[in-house]
Amino acid sequence: MDTENPSAPPHSESRIPGKNHPDRHRNGRPGGVIHDNARHSTHFTVIGNHLTQHRELSLLAIGLACHIQSLPTGAPVDIKTLAARFPEGPTRIAAALNELQDHGYLRRTRQRVDGGRIVTRTVSCNRPGHHSTTTGTSTGTAVRAATETSGRPPRRPAAEKPAPRTLLPAVPKPAHPSPDLLHTALALLAGLHRADPRLLLSATDVEHLAPGVTAWLERDLPPTAVRHALTANLPQDPLHRPAAFLAHRLTAQLPPPPPFRAPAPPPEVPHPLQNCDSCDLAFRAPAPGHCRSCRSDPPDAA
Cα–chain-centroid distance for residue 106? Predict the structure, then answer.
């Protein structure tokens, strides 16, 4: 987390005549945003333009990163706390946190503490790729100063660019499309975190894994059996990529297709009820006529 800038003046910066004038446009084109800026001296956080103008992060992830960087050290940033603070639900909050982790703005590790409990340690990085070893000026402050001097964010070295997200392994595909089975698969994957919090998946991960779960369900397996196969005997080590782990299990442990069963013959349709033309007794026949008793010849018939 960034600290307050000790070099900030104790009062707001005086406005320079002509600066931020609505008729002046840096790019020479009309329209666009006009900044009405005042320098903060207290209660502010330095945020790099590499975050606020990130082209791959969602708007929710960018806003969440800014909020986390503004919090003091030790503040809770778990999904439940953030979902209670903001209107977005736990699923969207979890997906945004995964985005920030994939791009290096968050580092989350699970550690065992006294008493055997496992806790998650979260480190917020205001500039991915930089690990500060001093308590001096932060990297966020340096980026902010360069931006205010040149009017544009400084070019980041190639070493600081976060690594692209690694593609997930392929999963089995169902033999036939089934909207009902796909809906069951999506619900099953979205609820895996109830068995183990490490299996909290993003919306993108659930969409990728759903066909694999559908392939299991179409092999006459109930959802409870599929859930047990995915969550049983999980490793004790931290799951840095739970979606990749589940994709491997869906592929490596795919059960065989069920044995072939010939379709059952259609049930026999009974004839409709008819009334006998002679005795008016009800009997079943394909067409009106006489019942069995009335159409039988008398024993003494010659």
Answer: 17
Q: Across 76-201, where does the E strand assignment appear?
A: 106-112, 118-124
What are phi and psi for residue 5, nearest 5 degrees? -75, 115
Q: Which of 252, 271, 294 is the last residue of a domain?
A: 252
Show the domain range for 230.
179-252
Pairing of strands 282-284, 273-275: antiparallel
CA–CA separation, 246 and 242 (whole Å): 6
* Residue spans of beta strands (DSSP E) within 208-302: 273-275, 282-284
Of the listed ranges 11-15, 150-154, 223-227, the least confidently predicted one is 150-154
Give dist(CA 194, CA 91) in Å, integer.
13
Amino acid of residue 265: P
Q: CB–CB of 94/115 below 8 Å? A: no
- Domain harbouring 56, CATH code: 1.10.10
Measured between alpha carbons, how far is 190 from 210 in angstroms, rounded to an integer? Answer: 10
pLDDT at 129 over 90: no
Average pLDDT, integer, range 89-111: 89
pTM above 0.90? no
Q: Tens digits of per-residue pLDDT, 240-276?
A: 899 999 999 999 999 998 887 667 788 888 889 888 8
